[in-house]
Amino acid sequence: MAEPGATLLARLAAAVGPSHVLTAPADLAPWLTDWRGRYTGRALALVRPGSTAEVAAVVAACREHGVPIVPQGGNTSMCGAATPDTSGNALLLSLGRMHRVRAIDSANATLTVEAGVTLAAAQDAARAQDMLFPLSLASEGSATVGGVLSTNAGGTAVLRYGNARELVLGLEVVLADGRVWDGLRGLRKDNTGYDLKQLFVGAEGTLGIVTAAVLKLFPAPRSQATAFVAVPDPAAAVALLGGLRGRLADRLTGFELIGALPLALCRKHHPALPDPLPGHAWYVLVQADDGAQDAPTAADLEAALGAAAERGLVADATIAQSQAQAAALWALRENISEGQRREGPNVKHDISLPVSAIPRFLDEAAHSLRAALPGVRFVTFGHLGDGNLHYNLSAPEREDATAFMANAPAANRIVHDLVAAHGGSISAEHGIGQLKRDELARYKSALELELMRRVKDALDPQGLMNPGKVL
Length: 471
Ligand code: 2HG
Ligand code: ZN
Description:
This protein has 471 residues and is of the alpha+beta class. The protein has 17 helices and 18 strands. The chain has helices at residues 4-16, 25-32, 52-65, 119-128, 145-150, 158-161, 197-200, 234-248, 260-269, 297-310, 323-334, 336-343, 358-372, 401-404, 408-421, 437-443, 446-459, and strands at residues 21-22, 45-47, 69-72, 91-94, 101-105, 110-114, 131-132, 168-175, 180-183, 208-216, 218-219, 223-231, 252-259, 282-290, 316-319, 350-352, 377-383, 388-394. Strand 5 and strand 6 form a beta hairpin. Residues 382-383, 390, 429 line the site of zinc ion (ZN).
């Protein structure tokens, strides 16, 4: 008699085709380690369904065999959310073959895509209709729609357009029992009870598998302006944000804080990138866009920066004169994460705070961390416009980066306690995954944790959907 694993594999092969059930170690290897290289798991097999019906058949088979499923999109999670544990019991389910654009409705300003469509492909599909899908982040070439919805990704345009959660109108989900919930509605108003789709957004695949989504589109911007600004300190950056919002209102799309060290790491590992304003401690990358054909956004931005300079909020600034220059300035921001990765491991804190609390938080955190970890280096950057900082810590110069990681628990305690004291969040946009599961248990109230567990039990009573993540 065949062993249970073999029976399941045969059933999966019948469901999705034998060539889409991979078990050879070399085929699995690229998907078993996360992007940061922090986690390596094992899996029974990698299965690649090509349709919603095939995903449903896989889930139904796993349910009967009691086999856990780890869904995976572009494998760019920052916290090990898409990496299986080391038991080897779980099935890795890639949505990569589900990459069809199902529909685009210009009049309704919606785009319906399958979960394996990359974020860049979704943006391209919108652009082809002269529209905008605004979710934007460094890994958009490989991150998938299913992944960014499952993690409620943020990125660099949240200030104007909101997180992934705000950009989804409908979902199709394969539930833990193998049934398909068709919630692919493209409605901006729908008050017919609980908003079920939002349960699956940010759930990291622990409640079901997102297989398709209806996304919101916006008018494509007609005029754009990008500025790289040196500021005296984070307090000036916060004041500058207020000043620019006052003058540009919702034309202000991005407002990214960049410390001198992350900029230096980015340029060290991407030496072709420019060094527009050398010698300052803090920078802000500003993006302003307008939907009107010849709205003078660049002139407005220049005037707004001039007014801020008179108040002492701007030390120096440069405004991109071409799309190529704007792209180069953005490359300085987008490649920070990769620069850090090449430099070696670091202790990441993806935190959010009320914007007004950020300058004080930075002072207090630096004071406590310097006392606890002498020589620690601060790789501080992020989406200041929406209060989200990547407050990452690197080893002191000439100290071993890997050995420094032993300090992570102590550093987390200092940073996260201070974040909690300021009313912030320990995970602004990267999610919980396995990296922050224990931290979540520490900082969420008992009542919130209980409600989350009850939702999990209701939707996944056997605990087979991405186990060990979030809760
Ligand atoms: C970014 O904003 C990403 O670039 C990555 O969220 C942040 O590497 C990081 O800590
Ligand atoms: Zn980010």
